[in-house]
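Regression test case RT-17, inverse folding.

Input:
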């Protein structure tokens, strides 16, 4: 039998829960589906938020010749087979648009992405990429420039309620509250633990959900729950300067075959987010580990990862630069583009100089250069 999440996958746009900013009335993907606009795009967002569902609904609206591949296991030969098969057929099928849903597109290397480019550019293939990673870093600029990017959000409490309601399982409030925290906006995760609890214990409660979680076999699913739980434990262990715990979770990921660049990338982020100016060399070390993983690969690059983890976990921690960025971003969101003081504007033309651009500017000025409305704002300390 198919998993519960697969059985409950929406077959109509009206049944999709969440992603209202993309699928609500008048929103871009809803318009594309309803008006059958043909274009390539990338869906970027956390697991279990509807990427596959959106791709299938879009292809269905086009009555397309639709195919799904995972970049984890697929390669150039699989793309070639699709194109060759397409070129060898005729009739009605040949008149339908060829739509490829490429899950985890960030797993395709540069050569594989380059191979896709002429087919996408020439219209032989309409690409829908799905990724949990920032496509700005993981998708070639040339390919990305030919695709629109839509950002999916973790499912809200209301969306998860609607999805859980469709299971027709009796889920008490305390159980739903537990589920909400566990799922973290991931519908597939929520449905998976519900199905396990119901199968093992015959009812749903906070207690049976917790037991179902504990009773699962120890495993590492690179596309699901264990992946996200382990990387979370890894980061939090380094944050708490618990070197032994961080090394243990690293070992679990290495033994499971987790992409070393994914681990190293998270370490680079951690070096600035959690260590920052307390030990600036942490960013240098993390970048060196990332570069080593790129050049060496498994199995030896696991040693480089261990070296970096030992260093980062034992380093002093300082989140002041991270916190300052977030506080500044909140002001940008709240106030928009406030006028920049003329004193620090560049008087690149005579008119600008006459308008006072650069007037009064001196090196090492002590007067705040923030916009007038934020003159007294302190992001650091």
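Golden output:
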């Amino acid at each position: 039998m198919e998993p519960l999440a697969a059985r409950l996958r929406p077959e109509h746009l009206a049944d999709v829960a969440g992603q209202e900013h993309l699928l609500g009335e008048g929103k871009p993907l809803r318009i594309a589906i309803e008006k059958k606009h043909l274009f390539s795009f990338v869906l970027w967002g956390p697991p279990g938020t509807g990427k596959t569902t959106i791709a299938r609904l879009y292809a269905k609206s086009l009555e397309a010749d639709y195919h799904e591949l995972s970049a984890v296991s697929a390669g150039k030969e699989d793309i070639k087979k699709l194109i060759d098969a397409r070129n060898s057929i005729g009739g009605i099928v040949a008149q339908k648009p060829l739509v490829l849903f490429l899950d985890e597109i960030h797993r395709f290397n540069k050569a594989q992405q380059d191979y896709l480019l002429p087919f996408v550019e020439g219209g032989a293939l309409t690409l829908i990429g799905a990724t949990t990673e920032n496509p700005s870093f993981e998708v070639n600029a040339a390919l990305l420039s030919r695709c629109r990017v839509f950002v999916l959000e973790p499912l809200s409490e209301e969306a998860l309620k609607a999805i859980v309601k469709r299971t027709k399982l009796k889920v008490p409030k305390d159980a739903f509250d537990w589920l909400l925290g566990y799922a973290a906006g991931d519908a597939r995760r929520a449905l998976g633990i519900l199905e396990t609890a119901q199968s093992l214990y015959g009812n749903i409660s906070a207690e049976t959900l917790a037991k179902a979680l504990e009773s699962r076999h120890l495993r590492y699913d690179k596309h699901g729950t264990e992946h996200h739980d382990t990387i979370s434990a890894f980061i939090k262990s380094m944050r708490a300067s618990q070197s032994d715990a961080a090394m243990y979770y690293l070992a679990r990921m290495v033994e499971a075959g987790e992409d070393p660049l994914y681990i190293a990338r998270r370490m680079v982020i951690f070096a600035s987010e959690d260590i920052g100016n307390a030990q600036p060399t942490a960013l240098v070390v993390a970048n060196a580990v990332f570069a080593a993983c790129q050049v060496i690969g498994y199995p030896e690059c696991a040693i480089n990862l261990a070296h970096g983890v030992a260093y980062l976990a034992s380093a002093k921690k300082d989140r002041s630069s991270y916190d300052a960025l977030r506080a500044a971003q909140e002001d940008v969101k709240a106030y928009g583009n406030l006028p920049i003081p003329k004193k620090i504007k560049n008087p690149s033309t005579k008119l600008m100089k006459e308008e006072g651009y650069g007037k009064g500017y001196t090196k090492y000025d002590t007067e705040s250069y923030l916009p007038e409305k934020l003159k007294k704002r302190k992001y650091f300390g």
